[in-house]
């Protein structure tokens, strides 16, 4: 029913709409709606196309809507040439609970295992209060690697930790 495909440049507008929807949610992406700009979308799409991977899922009932997106890429620094970082996943709130996060994440990790032996680790960070996301990432094989204390400033002015996590490619070859 849902098909995962690589993102292409003409998807930028649809990804922008998706990110605006997800940014509203407290457990959504780290950026608020004002910070989701066309420049931001263009930046990560360009980085992913040049140095990483970006996948999307179209709405099967409306090909003009993207309902899930995931991306990660290399920084371009030689010492970190084995790392995909800046991982972000967005699933439309209208499609939560339908397994899209697992589907697109599984495709991403399978792609890295089969096509990217140059990538040893994939990194992400999850907000400490988002236990659902942390448990989801653990089920996918990510391991917590500590805490960045007081890294996230909440809307009420309080601070929360970010939990860095990593997944390791079993097919990495130097």
Record the SSE blueprint:
Blueprint: E1 4-6, H1 12-23, H2 38-51, E2 52-59, E3 62-73, E4 83-91, H3 100-115, E5 121-127, H4 131-139, E6 143-144, E7 148-153, E8 159-168
Parallel strand pairs: 4-5
Antiparallel strand pairs: 1-2, 2-3, 3-4, 5-8, 6-8, 7-8
Helix pairs in contact: 1-2
Shape: globular
**CATH fold title of the domain at 4-124:** Aminopeptidase
What count of helical segments does DSSP give? Answer: 4
| Rg calculated over all Cα atoms | 16 Å
Features:
Aminopeptidase; 174 residues; eight-stranded mixed beta sheet; alpha+beta; globular
How does this structure look, described?
With 174 residues, the chain is α+β, with helices and mostly antiparallel strands. The chain has a domain at 4-124: Aminopeptidase (3-Layer(aba) Sandwich), CATH 3.40.630.30. The chain contains 4 helices and 8 strands. The chain has helices spanning 12-23, 38-51, 100-115, 131-139, and strands spanning 4-6, 52-59, 62-73, 83-91, 121-127, 143-144, 148-153, 159-168. Strands 1, 2, 3, 4, 5, 6, 7 and 8 form an 8-stranded mixed sheet that branches. Helix 1 (12-23) crosses helix 2 (38-51). It starts with a strand and ends in a 6-residue tail after the last strand. The mean pLDDT is 95.
